[in-house]
Design a protein that fits this description.
Length: 612
């Protein structure tokens, strides 16, 4: 009996060693994502695309990201699948196009439909990874329990911006219905979300017209913060700027570098790495540190340079020394601009800002990007140092923004449009496996955000080409590097937010976009564009080879009629006819709808081939 028991113990030991060896072969993976980040804020990207390090607008700084491009592989022609935060982030986490996942805009959605598949952290957990998230996630996922929609946790550990706000670990944030302000109880309870700032001494400045009206003792607090931090808020002729206007386009952080939300994301991530098999504190809350028995998959969602654009004082001062060339909207562009895109421009119009205001918003935006670049460097360096100390393989995936941002390009600020400035977001992959991702290599073939999930899963050991992962729409970018993946003639995407339903397709020389239907009601008029007139499609066509800033809409130019027709037909067949899915999720956070509407009149249309 003892002999049998000894053999059994030996077998268990061998199995455990074998399992441990497999785990050690799986690399630690860090995925870094920024927010509203223009690619021209990165010198290395500008050099690759234009031959000049500086943006066409002027001076930028990015030493840490530049270094990553030297150490890894840059996918310089990566494009997002939606030019709004939530749908773009969903496409990355699901590895699926919006027209396949059914997540098109800032909507709550559930994982209980016949069209639901594992998201990236879930699949990584199944592969044996410890999954951890820091910062902004931006995906409104729910799961249905007992007939109600509840929040679904994507990561095993999630240290997000709300936790930091609760702990006062930020310079800016929002609170629902604060009960007191700087120790003083409110006479009248506030029932809305209130914006606030915290100074170096811990004093709160709440920005709420309701607060000041209902609690006169705080009258003038918003004005005090507005003046102290030199805010410039979004405004237009129809909506002149006030201290309570939404969206801060420029100003200075109320706290120094390292003590902002983004600064805490980086330092908390480093605390996580420094606490192996131990707990660590984030304010009053306790979290688990690194589980050394597992490979780790960490995701940092930085908020920079999303509004409020508030660089620390030292960064701001440095960038105020530079004068920028401001993009301007001219009458010729406006006259030929599609109505859907005019709608977005009107909502975030900035062309009538003063020269001083335009300079200010550009200076502060690039200063904020430079500050964020330093935090990216700190995070990556700590991650690589930890992995090498533990003698573990590693991989870093840096994604430059969930989409881009206009700085008066086309006459507006904000995003939501298919123009290159909003949709072009390069990716850098740095790995201890230099064969898979060579140092200093630049890949110019098209890649897309749907490639992120299969790339990370592939590195983790998943057989992404098998039936188990057939739901993924993207490619493993390691296969793109090795030329084992198909070469794309085009990329596609679709956004609904602000502009209304609009899809886009981009080739090396052209970008075409069109309205896909007049409203966003799911499952209704899904094939509207098949019978709509060309004019009703509200088309845009840009010949990017001669018009890189995409100002001259050629959609109705006879010389480009054949190109527009081919691109229109290809786009319709792909996004509307190749296994399109829509779900009536329901209203608000109680997203309990599960009925899936399908359109599949052109199966296989998305074959990456388009000859013009």
């Amino acid at each position: 009996m003892n002999k049998v028991y000894s053999i059994l113990l030996a077998f268990v030991a061998l199995f455990t060693i074998g399992k441990s060896a497999i785990a050690q072969q799986q690399p630690n993976i860090l995925w870094v994502l920024t927010d509203d980040h223009r690619y021209d804020a990165i010198r290395a990207f500008n050099k690759m695309l234009t031959g000049n390090e500086m943006s066409k607008l002027g001076y930028v700084e990015s030493p840490n990201t530049d270094r990553l491009t030297k150490e890894g592989t840059t996918f310089i022609n990566t494009y997002c699948q939606a030019t709004g935060c939530a749908p773009s982030r969903a496409s990355m986490h699901y590895g699926r196009y919006p027209f396949r996942s059914g997540v098109y805009q800032f909507e709550y959605h559930n994982n209980n439909t016949e069209n639901s598949y594992p998201h990236l952290p879930e699949a990584m957990e199944k592969l044996g990874y410890q999954t951890v998230h820091f910062g902004k996630l931006g995906i409104r996922l729910r799961t249905i329990k007992n007939g109600k929609a509840e929040k679904a946790n994507m990561y095993q550990t999630d240290i997000d911006s709300r936790i930091l706000a609760d702990e006062g670990l930020t310079a800016w944030g929002k609170k629902w219905g604060p009960k007191e302000v700087n120790g003083q109880k409110l006479k009248e309870q506030i029932k809305t979300s209130v914006e606030y700032f915290i100074d170096e001494d811990g004093k709160y400045y709440y920005i709420s017209e309701e607060l000041e009206k209902e609690n006169p003792q705080f009258a003038g607090m918003a004005q005090e913060a507005y003046d102290k931090y030199d805010f410039m808020r979004k405004h237009s002729p129809d909506h002149p700027e006030t201290v309570f206007s939404p969206g801060i386009l420029a100003g200075v952080s109320s706290r120094p570098a390292g003590k902002t939300r983004d600064g805490y994301y980086a330092s908390i991530f480093i605390d996580f790495l420094n606490n192996q098999n131990e707990n660590f504190q984030v304010g009053t809350k306790t979290y688990k540190g690194v589980d050394t028995s597992k490979p780790m998959f960490c995701h940092i969602g930085f908020d920079f340079p999303h509004t409020p654009v508030l660089p620390p004082a030292d960064y701001r001062a440095r960038f105020q020394k530079h004068t920028y060339k401001v993009p301007e909207l001219d009458d010729a562009e406006w006259k030929k601009m599609p109505e859907q895109l005019k709608k977005q421009v009107k909502k975030s119009y900035s062309n009538d800002f003063s020269e001083e205001e335009k300079q200010k918003m550009i200076q502060d935006y690039y200063a904020f990007c430079a500050y964020g670049d330093a935090l990216v460097g700190e995070s990556v360096d700590a991650f690589v140092a930890y992995s090498e100390k533990m003698k573990q393989e590693w991989m870093v995936v840096f994604v430059c923004g969930d989409h881009g941002w206009k700085l008066n390009d086309h006459g507006a600020v904000s995003k939501f449009t298919p123009w290159d400035v909003d949709s072009h977001n390069p990716i850098v992959v740095v790995s201890s496996d230099k064969k898979a991702f060579p140092a200093g290599k630049v890949v110019r073939d098209f890649t897309e955000f749907v490639d992120i999930a299969p790339t990370i899963l592939g590195a983790a050991g998943a057989k992404v080409n098998t039936k188990e992962y057939a739901y993924l729409d993207g490619m493993d970018m390691a296969k793109v590097v090795s030329k084992e993946a198909p070469v794309r003639d085009y990329i596609v995407g679709e956004s609904h937010h602000v502009t209304g339903p609009r899809a886009y397709i981009r080739t090396k020389d052209y970008c075409f976009s069109m309205q896909t239907r007049p409203n966003t009601k799911r499952g209704v008029n899904m094939e509207w564009a098949l019978n709509a007139s060309y004019k009703d499609l509200d088309p845009a066509l840009y010949y990017t080879k001669n018009d890189p800033d995409e100002k001259n809409n050629l959609a109705f130019d006879k010389e480009y009629e054949k190109v527009a027709k081919k691109m229109k037909e290809k786009l319709i067949n792909i996004v509307l006819g190749d296994n399109r899915a829509e779900v009536n999720w329901g209203k608000g956070s109680n997203a309990i709808g599960t009925e899936v509407f399908k359109s599949n009149f052109a199966p296989g249309a998305h074959d990456y081939k388009l000859k013009l």
